[in-house]
Amino acid sequence: MADTQPPAEGSGEPQQPSKNALKKAQKEAEKAAKKAAAKERELAERMKKEASDAADVSAESYGELPLTGSKGFKKTGTPRVSLSDIDEYVDKEITFRCWVENARVQSAKLAFLNLRQAYNTIQAVVAASDKLSKQMVKFAGNVSTESLLVVTGEVKRVQEPIKSATIKDYELHIVKLFIEKKADVLPLQVSDAERAIPNEGLGEDVQKEGEGEGQPIVGLNTRLNNRTIDLRAKINLAIFDIKMGVQTLFLEFLSKEKFRLINTPKILGAASEGGANVFELKYFDRKAYLAQSPQFYKQMLIAARFQRVMEIGSVFRAENSNTARHLTEFIGLDLEMEFQEDYHEVMDVLENLMLFIFKELNTRYKKETDLVRSVYHVDEFKLPESGKVPRIEFTEGIKMLREVGEELNDFDDLSTPQEKLLGKLVLEKYGSDFYTLDQFPLAIRPAYTMPSPANANLSNSYDMFMRGQEICSGAQRIHDADLLSEMMRKHDPPVDPNGPGTKDYVDSFRYGCPPHGGGGFGLERIVQFWLGLPNIRMTSLFPRDPQRVVP
Amino acid sequence: MADTQPPAEGSGEPQQPSKNALKKAQKEAEKAAKKAAAKERELAERMKKEASDAADVSAESYGELPLTGSKGFKKTGTPRVSLSDIDEYVDKEITFRCWVENARVQSAKLAFLNLRQAYNTIQAVVAASDKLSKQMVKFAGNVSTESLLVVTGEVKRVQEPIKSATIKDYELHIVKLFIEKKADVLPLQVSDAERAIPNEGLGEDVQKEGEGEGQPIVGLNTRLNNRTIDLRAKINLAIFDIKMGVQTLFLEFLSKEKFRLINTPKILGAASEGGANVFELKYFDRKAYLAQSPQFYKQMLIAARFQRVMEIGSVFRAENSNTARHLTEFIGLDLEMEFQEDYHEVMDVLENLMLFIFKELNTRYKKETDLVRSVYHVDEFKLPESGKVPRIEFTEGIKMLREVGEELNDFDDLSTPQEKLLGKLVLEKYGSDFYTLDQFPLAIRPAYTMPSPANANLSNSYDMFMRGQEICSGAQRIHDADLLSEMMRKHDPPVDPNGPGTKDYVDSFRYGCPPHGGGGFGLERIVQFWLGLPNIRMTSLFPRDPQRVVP
């Protein structure tokens, strides 16, 4: 209508005949002609398209959907299934959401797609027929990798097992295929993220990327820079399902043991543990600090008669350690409990907790564990056949190391290589990748550690190891305010028991605190060493280290 | 021997007889006499004490134990029981750890103690007999309040129910009583902490303390300053057992619904949500920020195809809000999920989650709930009889408020008093203390909120309320990078989609992100409004607000 309307009366143009007016009229005529031609072309194209659509028997069965939840989107109400339940749908038509691992046109009449949904992949066939158009085959075979689809198809049993999919016995004969959300060109291929990272260091080596045996090797930094693509790899889904598993098993076991789940503050008014390695923040008009552990608070809750407490929470360490097993932010699995007469009661709980976690990971998370370990060629995690965790005194550990040539004094701390070596010796002797070292030298432990009644140079404290690497540190804590104050003052470096970050803590032991002990596990380390992964960053969704605070 | 030995030959003293030598000999004789007298006295005292000990038939049955785990401590190996199992031990002798609620000497031959262990209290009798000395009665009756004991006694049924203890049918006839850890004079009486705080404000009013109906009223600040004593009150143990309950029920329900437990970073390289109300920290040689919510990360994990995610984690808000329902640090219960065709699928999950939590709190945590509500005279939490959570459109809510005289424009945000009023109206109309408000005005929601297809001024977003107060905010999120960028730029205040804190987030929606929505609950608010507590600080073990970062 608007196009054919005469110029409105009183339009701005003065009505004077002139050369300019003639030129103008000519121009307008030309314009009108062009317009008419364009209209004709448009009409022709529309008719052609309509004819073509009419010819396309599948016109209503494929295409790109409007944004879900937007004005143009229409609900279908069609129920969608999970590929995990595919056995229930043989020879039936199913609709489901999935994404494209790859799509390829075989011929004008045939396209194949590999479709994925969580851990499952299925081969899909789009074959031209009198019910399915060549246009649809072309469309389906050209969907970009990682695009999100809603497909409808028939589940068909196949003769030969399909090698390229996790679902080996069935393929899907596509009936409808809609792009729910198209993927742009990817900065990182998910298939590359499924392969092992080149080495365990970070620095330059990890950033080095190249062609190894014909396939691109993508370094850890590139993966972490594109983490939301990287995490789509099945190996990563498995790592984080296991990480969830460790947390839920931790809660499951300790709940049965009557531990109370607590939430302690992460913002502290004063740096409690000496002030080293602590992040400082602006707290309104004063300074505050991020908690390096829930240590003081979980003990204060024992003093508050909570009896047994556990926490899963963020822990912050401002250590400038750029190693394969340090993070500046990680999840601490902490527990603290009163005991009756002997701190070994606490060790029993800790050891049984870990045995429970390992055993249940081996059953409930076997698939995920196998998937990850197969990529990194990692040995099984050996547990003692006797069911009893090797508990070795520190002095005995020193002896074992000396016997193989290590030079160590009685009360020296172990270096990381020495810890790993001792792990190997223990594995040889006791057949266990998990063990406990008891009665550490007092001098190398925190000021709140209970001295050993047997030897004033030792203490009622312990560490736990997986594959020769520390995952837990714990001890009986001093539950007497006066002894605690004395030990703080005598500590190297000394701690002020009346300091702003310590006074409330020390005072909490003046009102009848029960004897207690506990420990703190690094969740990411448990996952790393369980799976035998070369770098702890792989076990954090968005890892934080001195160099990295994004994404 | 040493005393009677002659001086050694060649001792330093020259052998010259002189006045000095005489004086010296006299002095030494005096010394020797004194020494002998002292020895005699000592011997006499020792004999007297031995005689007295011999007379004290209970000498081995009471006293103060050396510090558990120290050199002087000796293990007994006696098994210790839980008072929860007392029914199993009628007429039997039991040993257990407990603490002293109060102790009083009735006569030289009789003392009473109220002993506590977790939620249980029992009356204990110490009666002199031929087997139990008056000395022991005196010792037991004078043990300081809150001291930790290990007692042994016989469980005896009583005729009249005991009013002053939770265990009404039995009392304990003490046989042995040892102080395991003595309590100093308390800065706060636990019995005072069992009573209601004077009012809900903080400021001056709460610090005002005085005598109300003959009993001291202790304000919230005093309680929080002495939190480890305060937390010993049963009402506090109940509050935190319920807080644990909400968390475990959250995990239980959502695990069954196949949500993945995630752990997102709390240290961010850039302030993501505009930079207001965010804590800044020193991160090595740069600045970093504390996460105000896991919002961006949980959505990025949906983009990473994690499908359904949940998190229980610390949330930090640098809001200078000194109200009864704000904390600067709290626990967020977050979830995010892809949906198929309609964001109301997400609301269904959220509502069913909360219904599950409420129902299970009513059964599994009924005792604890009743204990707390009885102190604060709080009404039962009403749930809809139909089992269907009232889901009210925002515009309908506005209408309800206008009908009772509130002046509001169509797209105005509700004030806190208006929210509370609407809560009352909903309770009257639908009989539910829990309800959902749907389709909020777009302008008052974050930039990533999906606009409503029905009305461009509204959005696919919702809040959830308990007793008229907000506990959850959620929405369908925009899962298209271009639309998201546009909405960010158009937002008031505008957000830069290419900023250091937003670019990775926006880009994660370029690679086929599914439609999704979710919500974030404030854990402390759920506990506060479930129990009807006047102040949110009561639901945080060690609360943080603009004025408080200790203990």
UniProtKB/TrEMBL annotation, chains A, B:
For this protein, what is the EC number? Answer: 6.1.1.12
Q: Where do the segments described as Disordered lie?
A: 1-61
Q: Does the keyword Ligase apply?
A: yes
The residues covered by the Aminoacyl-transfer RNA synthetases class-II family profile domain are 240-551
Pfam families, per the entry: tRNA-synt_2 (PF00152)
**Residue stretches of biased makeup (Basic and acidic residues):** 25-52
GO cellular component terms, semicolon-separated: aminoacyl-tRNA synthetase multienzyme complex; cytosol
Q: Quote the subcellular location field of this record.
A: Cytoplasm
Please give the catalytic activity noted in the UniProt record.
tRNA(Asp) + L-aspartate + ATP = L-aspartyl-tRNA(Asp) + AMP + diphosphate
Q: Name one GO molecular function term.
A: RNA binding
The alphabetized UniProt keywords are: Aminoacyl-tRNA synthetase, ATP-binding, Cytoplasm, Ligase, Nucleotide-binding, Protein biosynthesis
Q: Tell me the PANTHER family matching this sequence.
A: ASPARTATE--TRNA LIGASE, CYTOPLASMIC, ASPARTYL-TRNA SYNTHETASE
Q: Which family does it belong to?
A: Belongs to the class-II aminoacyl-tRNA synthetase family. Type 2 subfamily.
Q: What is this protein called?
A: Probable aspartate--tRNA ligase, cytoplasmic
